[in-house]
Amino acid sequence: MFIPLQDMGLKMDVWLVDNEDDQSDIDEYMERNLIQTGTPAMLVFDPPMCPHSDQTQCDDETYYDPSDPLKVRLPLTANLSRYNGREIEVVLYSSKLEHIGMDSNLGQLIGLGAGSGDDDDEEFTKYIFGPFDCVGNVGSAYVARRFIIDTTAPEIVFVTPGPNAVVTPGSEIPVVAVIVDTASGGTGSGISTEDLCIYLSGPKGQVFQFCPETFDPGDTASTDSATAANARAVNGHVKSWSITGNKIEMVLVGLQDQGLYTLRFEGQDNIGNAFVASHNFTVGSLALTIADPYVYPNPVDPQKDRATIHFILGGYRDAQVSMKIFDFAGDLVYAMPTETRHPGLVELEWAGTTKGGTQVANGGYVAHITVDDGAGVKTESVKIAVRKD
Q1: What is the span of the domain harbouring residue 218?
Q2: DSSP reduced 3-state for 9
Q3: How far is the CA of 8 from the CAs of 41, 71, 382, in angstroms?
Q4: How far apart are CA 205 and CA 266, in angstroms?
């Protein structure tokens, strides 16, 4: 079988080498494992090489131009996930010698794949020449580089706001997060800022999506209403942003709606390991309160609508919320099952019916609201008028 010169001129070996005790000797028997071999057919060229012998047929920017840099990628097809955190060596060469050596302890010959050996054994692999081109120009030495296998996504650890933190409405909120990457002794490949996006959601839904590398403050003038609204939200709530070393810092401002907020970081490291990290904090007061209660519509016609009781639940804990409806004579008309609600805006509905589902008569009623966060109890009452046409 004829083998073209260019196929003979470049070969690749991938070794698992992190068990070596003598890094100056790269071929110690039994201290390294060959996990993959390769030929030029495996190479990935970026941009691709011209498939025609006549280079003029490839003058467009799609193909490689000798005046531009050429990236050559070496795909590793071995199952590297099981070697996460370990060290490999990639060797490019054209010729190597695999020879039989003598086991100095056993006093016998050993060969490639033999099941015994120690530090005194002779080398069984020797690289002779480096890659050569199609006209036979050959390098005097092989090329070898070592890498750390990283298949673990970095972890984002939030420092501030702290767990269950409560911040004052409208205040500046420093956000500090630390990147923890266990690969390569804790350094890892680093976060790709191009792929990092930060999402903030609040009591009324998503506040903004902020991707630092692609965000354009001028998008407030976008013809797409959603894009413009998001740009206004980012401009109004992100005062500053930075990523230095393994630390992400930002300052949030202008968060007025009281309740639970969630920060979510999404992205990947520089070699594609994706991560998602979330952190909660509360905007509001420490004290349990029922603020600004009101009813809408009021009066309400239960034949057409429901009465919605609105109020702001203050504090930093979830609370058990219950509501009872009384008529002006003090008789219980309706009792709502107790529900767990987060701090922030709370909306409770009454269909204008009794416990048995019968519509109540025209007149005045009182909604009695009770909230209990485990540390205290607060109550509040609002009047509701029922008027059926």
Answers
A1: 155-283
A2: coil
A3: 11, 21, 88
A4: 18
